[in-house]
C-alpha cells in the first residue's frame, strides 16, 4: 500500500482545565500502524486517559505518513488544537445564540479504499475504537441535506446529497459500528484519484439502523436494498416509463409499509441526482411526498440500480380514484385542492417548478383527506435557465408557456392544478381532442379555450367556475397564484 500523509489530533478529557500537554509525531506506512501511538506515553501523551481522535489527509507530501498528536486536558467548545490540523473554516448561525466561527478537519483518504464500504471495513478492523473516541460525534441535527455533527470538541458539517454511506462493526469494541460518509464525486482516471475521501464516525450498533435511515432521508445513498426491505409478493408494481414503484415492508420493523421507486438503468445518474435534489429541497411540508431512503445497488460490471423509498399511501393516486369512483362533489374537491395549493405555494417559496402536475402524481391520504404531491423527476429550480427552457410535463396538463419553452417561473404548476381540478369535477380534461394525437391537444392548450358544457359543471358555484378559469389562464402573468387560490378555499 502506498504511504499516505495523514494528520491526527488527540484530546485528553480527564480534567476541566484546558491546557496544552504535549505533541508527538512520527512516520508510518499505513493507517494500521497509527493505533500504536495511542499506547505510547512519549512526548506527554497519557494513554491511560480517554483520547479523542480526528484524522485528516495532508496532501503536501505523498512520500510519507506523518502523525501529529496533541493532548489538551479538559473540554472546550472550540479547542485551539484544531489550528494545528489542516482545517476549513465554516460559519454557523444558531437561533438564539451569537454567531460562532468553527473549524473542521478535511476528510480522510485511505490508500486502496475505493468505496465507502472499503473505508468503513478498513477503519473498523484497524483502529482500537471506543465510546470515548472523537469519531463518536454525537448526532446533533439535520438541516435540509446537511448532517450536523457536534461533540464537545468539534463541529462538522457534511453535505449528504448523493453521498455514499456504509457501515461495519468495530472489531475492537462490542456494540460500536463505524459509519463512513463519502461525498459524491466523479472518480478520476489514475489509481490514486480513485481512492475515496470521506468522514468516519462511530455509532452504537443498536441505533445504527435509525441513524442510516436518517442519512438516507437526507439524500445519502447506500447498497443492500433487499437486505432492508421485504417486497410484497404478487403483482403489486405501479407505473412504467422510467421507473416502477413496488410496495415493500421495512425488514427492521416488519410492519411499516413503504413505496420503493426503482429507477430503470437507462436513466442517468445526473437525472437521479436532480430528482433527489429537488425532493430534498421540497421536504418539510405535509402535502409533499416524504423521502425516506435512497439506495444504489451494483448491477453488472459498472452499472447502478437506483431506488428511492417513500411513504406508502394505500388509497393510491388521484387518477385511479376518479376513474374508479367518479367525479368528486364540489365541497370535497375544494377541501382536497386546498392541500395541493398549499404544497404548490410551498414549492414556489423555495423556487421549485414541479412541471408535471397531474392526477397520477397526486396521492390521497386516508388519514387527513389531503392530496400529497409526488414525482419530482421533471422538477427544476427557476434559476436553472437551461432546465426551464427544456420541454417537460404531460400533454393536456402542461401550460402554453411550457409547451413553447418560454416559462420563466412556477406559473405552469398553477395551470396544471386548474386542469387537475377540472378533471376531478368532471372526469374529463379541457383540451381533449376527438381528432386524437398529442399535437391536437397541444394546439387546444395554446388556444386555451376552456369548455364548461359538461353536466357536472351545471351545479357548480360561481366561485368554483371562476377559480377554474383563473387557473387555466393562457397568460401566466394574469394566472391565479397558488397563494391566492389558497385564500379562496
Keywords, separated by commas or semicolons:
single chain, alpha+beta, Transferase(Phosphotransferase), domain 1, 5-stranded antiparallel sheet, 4-stranded antiparallel sheet, 27% strand, elongated
Structure description:
The protein is α+β, with helices and mostly antiparallel strands and 489 residues long. It folds into three domains: 6-217, no CATH class; 225-311, Phosphorylase Kinase, domain 1; 318-488, Transferase(Phosphotransferase), domain 1 (Orthogonal Bundle), CATH 1.10.510. Helices cover 25% and strands 27% of the residues. The chain is built from 13 helices and 22 strands. Strands 14-15-16-18-17 form a five-stranded antiparallel β-sheet. A hairpin with a 6-residue loop joins strand 11 and strand 12 (176-182). 38% of the residues are buried. Mean pLDDT is 72; it is low at 1-105, 130-144, 148-154 and 186-191.
Main β-sheet, spatial strand arrangement: 14-15-16-18-17
Number of domains: 3
Summarize the main sheet: 5 strands, antiparallel
- The gross shape turns out to be elongated
Tell me, rounded to a whole number, the average pLDDT: 72
End-to-end span in angstroms? 67 Å
Q: Over the alpha carbons, how many angstroms does the gyration radius reach?
A: 27 Å
Low-confidence segments, given as residue ranges, are: 1-105, 130-144, 148-154, 186-191
Content-based structural category: alpha+beta
Total of DSSP H or I helical runs spanning 4+ residues:
13
Specify the helix fraction band. Answer: 25-40%
Number of E strands: 22
The portion of residues forming beta strands comes to 25-35%
Amino acid at each position: 500500500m502506498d504511504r499516505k500523509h495523514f494528520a491526527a489530533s488527540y484530546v485528553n478529557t480527564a480534567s476541566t482545565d484546558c491546557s496544552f500537554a504535549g505533541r508527538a509525531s512520527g512516520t508510518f506506512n499505513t493507517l494500521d500502524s497509527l493505533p500504536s501511538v495511542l499506547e505510547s506515553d512519549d512526548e506527554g501523551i497519557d494513554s491511560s486517559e480517554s483520547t479523542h481522535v480526528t484524522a485528516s489527509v495532508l496532501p503536501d507530501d505523498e512520500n510519507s505518513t506523518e502523525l501529529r498528536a496533541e493532548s489538551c486536558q479538559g473540554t472546550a467548545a472550540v479547542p485551539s488544537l484544531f489550528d494545528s490540523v489542516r482545517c476549513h473554516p465554516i460559519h454557523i448561525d444558531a437561533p438564539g445564540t451569537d454567531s460562532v466561527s468553527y473549524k473542521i478537519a478535511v476528510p480522510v483518504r485511505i490508500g486502496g479504499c475505493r468505496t465507502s464500504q472499503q473505508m468503513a471495513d478498513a477503519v473498523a478492523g484497524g483502529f482500537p475504537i471506543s465510546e470515548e473516541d472523537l469519531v463518536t460525534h454525537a448526532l446533533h441535527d439535520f438541516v435540509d441535506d446537511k448532517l450536523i455533527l457536534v461533540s464537545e470538541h468539534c463541529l462538522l458539517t457534511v453535505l449528504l446529497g448523493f453521498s455514499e454511506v456504509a457501515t461495519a462493526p468495530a472489531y475492537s469494541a462490542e456494540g460500536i459500528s463505524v459509519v463512513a460518509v463519502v461525498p459524491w464525486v466523479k472518480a478520476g482516471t489514475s489509481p490514486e484519484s480513485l481512492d475515496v475521501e470521506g468522514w468516519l464516525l462511530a455509532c452504537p450498533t443498536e441505533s445504527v439502523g435509525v441513524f442510516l435511515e436518517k442519512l438516507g432521508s437526507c439524500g445519502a445513498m447506500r447498497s443492500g436494498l433487499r437486505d432492508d426491505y421485504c417486497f410484497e409478493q404478487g403483482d403489486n408494481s405501479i407505473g412504467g416509463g422510467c421507473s416502477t414503484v413496488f410496495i415493500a415492508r421495512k425488514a427492521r420493523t416488519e410492519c411499516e409499509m413503504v413505496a420503493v421507486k426503482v429507477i430503470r438503468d437507462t436513466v442517468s445518474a445526473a437525472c437521479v441526482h436532480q430528482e433527489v435534489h429537488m425532493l430534498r429541497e421540497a421536504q418539510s411540508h405535509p402535502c409533499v411526498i416524504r423521502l425516506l431512503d435512497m439506495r444504489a445497488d451494483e448491477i453488472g460490471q459498472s452499472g447502478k440500480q437506483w431506488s428511492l423509498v417513500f411513504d406508502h399511501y394505500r388509497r393510491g393516486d388521484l387518477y385511479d380514484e376518479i376513474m374508479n369512483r367518479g367525479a368528486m362533489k364540489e365541497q370535497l374537491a375544494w377541501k382536497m385542492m386546498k392541500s395541493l395549493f398549499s404544497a404548490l405555494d410551498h414549492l414556489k417559496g423555495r423556487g421549485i417548478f414541479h412541471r408535471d402536475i397531474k392526477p397520477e402524481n397526486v396521492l390521497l391520504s386516508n388519514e387527513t383527506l389531503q392530496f400529497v404531491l409526488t414525482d419530482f423527476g421533471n422538477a427544476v429550480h427557476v434559476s436553472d435557465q437551461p432546465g426551464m427552457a427544456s420541454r417537460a410535463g404531460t400533454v393536456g396538463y402542461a401550460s402554453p408557456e411550457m409547451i413553447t419553452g418560454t416559462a420563466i417561473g412556477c406559473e405552469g404548476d398553477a395551470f396544471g392544478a386548474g386542469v387537475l381540478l377540472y378533471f376531478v369535477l368532471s372526469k374529463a380534461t379541457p383540451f381533449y381532442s376527438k381528432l386524437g394525437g398529442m399535437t391536437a391537444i397541444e394546439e387546444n392548450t395554446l388556444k386555451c379555450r376552456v369548455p364548461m358544457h359538461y353536466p357536472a359543471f351545471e351545479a357548480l358555484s360561481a366561485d368554483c367556475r371562476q377559480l377554474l378559469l383563473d387557473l387555466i389562464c393562457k397568460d401566466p402573468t394574469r394566472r391565479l397564484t397558488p397563494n391566492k387560490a389558497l385564500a379562496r378555499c
